[in-house]
Amino acid sequence: MSSLQSQDQVINILKKCFPKSNTFQIIEYSGIEGNLNFTGDIVRLTFEFTEDGIRNRKSLILKILKNTDPTSIFQKLDLYIRERVVYDLIIPRMNNYLNESLAPLDLKTTDSNIIILENLVMSGYEAGENNRQLYGLSQCFPILKALANFHATSHKICQIDQQLLQNEMLQNSKEGLLQLKKKTVDFWQPIYCELLAQNNVPSLIPKLVEVFRYMKENCNEIKSAVDYSNFKFYALCHGDFRKDNILLKYGPNDEVQGVKFIDFQTCFWSTPIYDFMFFTTVSVKAEVTESHFETLVNWYVECLNEKLKEMNNALLYTKEDFIRDVKSLRIYLILNVTFSSFLLFPLDRYEFVDTMVKGKKENIPYYMEACVEDELFTKGLLSNLKLFEKLGLFEP
């Protein structure tokens, strides 16, 4: 039986959030029940209400944390609070610097278990949930400019408020760096080199399965193996910057007129290059990355410096800084980006994630084989590995 929030329960929530309003009537209602892939119920609704004698209509998205599953509540609470911190402490300051919002409007509520956001789809924004329709070059420019603004303003904020930089909800562990660095490099380097030499993904499924299992079992240690000491500056990374979490608004000639980001559950302070690399390798067409990667890097760096200068920041971030930061990230970047290709591939990926969480690892090879039979997937994966090789990420 579904435990999704009922319409009556949601109306009670709305009454608390809009105490001056009455006669609520839900016009449209849909939702996703909280499970292993979501921190709680996600409800989308359009409703009418009366305030000061005037009838109004709103479209909202409610994220509702439920404390019903003791086996997963702590992990879900961590993700939920992380997003709550971003909406409460960072996004409002970011909006002041930019004079615009890169995220949905957050309607404040006294209930700490609920996040209420405007439904941007009702304002003409389109969600990029179909990962087979990857971004072309023209779409990349406005997205990367918005991303550069996000990173530059968050850097400014953490300069002013050092407590935000130390916020424990937005940290990555730095323990076990040297030991794991050697262990991880020794483990994956021969496998990726063989994959590149053969130019054939299906023949290496058994070894890819082995790498995936290693990554899953050592995820936190791999993440902590990143050398943060060499980064030129810190910014707030989205952490999961891909099509599902980017909304675009198009003009009459299909030009991008607006960019918004959603789902800040995985944000953390780090080099902004992680977001850039994750986006270009997971959500951009392979031919664009192969032919125009340097153009995209130059554009992002230019936009980042322009925004830093606009905010009177003397820092200059160069292409050389970019390459150095990419190499500092290489352990986490290669493993995470490569296997995100599998996790984000549109073949019932949620079932696959649930399978991994529940420990049914014997099903992994069958899932991977289904992925690599698809020409688009194989092309993208090999393109990413060749890009990593070109950037020198496979060097000892």
Characterization of the model:
The protein is 50% helix and 16% strand. It contains 14 helices and ten strands. It has a five-stranded antiparallel beta sheet with strand order 1-2-3-5-4. Helix 3 packs parallel to helix 9 and helix 9 crosses helix 14. The longest helix has 26 residues.
Outline the biggest β-sheet. 5 strands, antiparallel
Number of strands: 10
Percent range for β-strand residues:
15-25%
Give the averaged pLDDT, no decimals.
75
The assigned structural class equals alpha+beta
Name the overall outline: globular
Q: How would you spell out the order of helices and strands?
A: HEEEHEEEHHHHHEEEEHHHHHHH
Give the termini separation. Answer: 53 Å
Q: Supply the number of helical segments.
A: 14
- What strand line-up does the widest sheet have? 1-2-3-5-4
Low-confidence stretches: 70-74, 173-182, 356-361
Note the topology.
Layout: H1 7-17, E1 21-32, E2 40-51, E3 54-65, H2 73-98, E4 106-107, E5 114-118, E6 125-127, H3 137-160, H4 162-165, H5 177-198, H6 205-217, H7 219-224, E7 235-237, E8 246-250, E9 256-261, E10 268-270, H8 273-282, H9 286-310, H10 319-328, H11 330-343, H12 349-357, H13 364-372, H14 375-390
Antiparallel strand pairs: 1-2, 2-3, 3-5, 4-5, 6-8, 7-10, 8-9
Helix pairs in contact: 2-3, 3-9, 8-11, 9-14, 11-14
